[in-house]
């Protein structure tokens, strides 16, 4: 085990955090109004007495972007965790399907699947993770039958007060960052570096976001508003839920 140099972590963040912001903006440019309209409940907007096109657009777009950002940033944090573990334990990105990180500590081979937060999956998704762990253990033991392998589901934030799941461990938040780094306080130390040039990059994002809101609002008004400006709810519901997608 090596001692983690926080300056190396800070440098990694500064060199790579731009990727997260670039993907945020790219996600906006790829977004289509029909895509987000098709994924939201039109009845809810009517029940909440939503009267303007912009209110609908902001509500459904913000929800879509929030979900997208959670995924993008979760992937970015996975890379950070692997980098940190590599600095301390010589860990590496695993080549085994379903496994994100492999490293050795105290004569144990750890195989790790990294998720953003603790409530990441339903029972079938957790079942698949368990199956991936078993497959990885069989794969690794083909070359060393005596290898002591421990499976871990690591979560970048949150907590789980019952980490022992029987066939794997689940470490969240502070426990996860300590697990990959050996530093019990790392989970707070990485906060400041993550804000590197955040304001400047968010200004770029807000410029693209504002343009998209304006564009989508106009498109929505042209397609789903009546001549007097009122929302054509029947047309909106047909677009979202009709058995056959309307052509116009």
Oligomer: single chain
Give the overall average pLDDT: 91
What are the segments in which pLDDT stays under 50 over at least 5 consecutive residues?
Answer: none
> What is the string of helix and strand elements?
HHHHEEEHEEHHHHH
**Tally of distinct domains:** 1
The backbone outline, from C-alpha atoms, is elongated
Describe this structure in words.
Helix 4 packs antiparallel against helix 9 (198-224). The chain has helices at residues 6-30, 33-37, 42-47, 53-89, 123-141, 174-181, 186-189, 191-194, 198-224, 233-241; strands spanning 92-93, 101-105, 108-115, 149-155, 169-172. The mean pLDDT is 91. The protein starts with 5 loop residues before the first helix and ends in a 7-residue tail after the last helix. 58% of the residues lie in helices and 10% in strands. With 248 residues, it is α/β, with parallel strands linked by helices. The protein has a five-stranded mixed beta sheet, sandwiched between helices. It has one domain (6-23, 41-241). The radius of gyration is 23 Å and the shape is elongated. A hairpin with a 7-residue loop joins strand 1 and strand 2.
Question: Can you give keywords for this protein?
Answer:
248 residues; alpha/beta; 5-stranded mixed β-sheet
């Amino acid at each position: 085990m090596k001692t983690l140099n926080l300056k190396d972590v800070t440098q990694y963040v500064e060199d790579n955090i731009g990727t997260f912001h670039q993907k945020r903006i790219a996600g906006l440019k790829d977004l289509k109004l029909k895509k987000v309209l098709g994924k939201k409940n039109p009845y809810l907007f009517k029940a909440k007495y939503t009267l303007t096109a912009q209110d609908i657009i902001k509500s459904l777009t913000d929800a879509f972007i929030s979900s997208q950002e959670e995924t993008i940033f979760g992937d970015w944090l996975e890379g950070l965790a692997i980098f940190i573990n590599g600095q301390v334990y010589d860990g590496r990105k695993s080549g085994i399907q379903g496994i994100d990180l492999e490293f050795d500590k105290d004569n144990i081979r750890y195989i790790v699947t990294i998720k953003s937060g603790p409530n990441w999956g339903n029972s079938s998704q957790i079942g698949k993770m368990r199956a991936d762990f078993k497959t990885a253990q069989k794969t690794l033991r083909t070359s060393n039958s005596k290898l002591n392998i421990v499976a871990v589901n690591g979560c970048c934030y949150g907590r789980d007060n019952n980490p022992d799941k029987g066939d794997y461990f689940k470490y969240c938040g502070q426990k996860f960052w300590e697990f990959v780094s050996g530093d019990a306080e790392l989970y707070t130390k990485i906060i400041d570096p993550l804000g590197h040039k955040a304001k400047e990059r968010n200004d770029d994002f807000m410029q693209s976001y504002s343009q998209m809101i304006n564009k989508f609002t106009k498109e929505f008004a042209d397609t789903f508003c009546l001549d007097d400006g009122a929302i054509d709810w029947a047309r909106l519901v047909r677009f979202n839920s009709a058995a056959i997608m309307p052509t116009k």
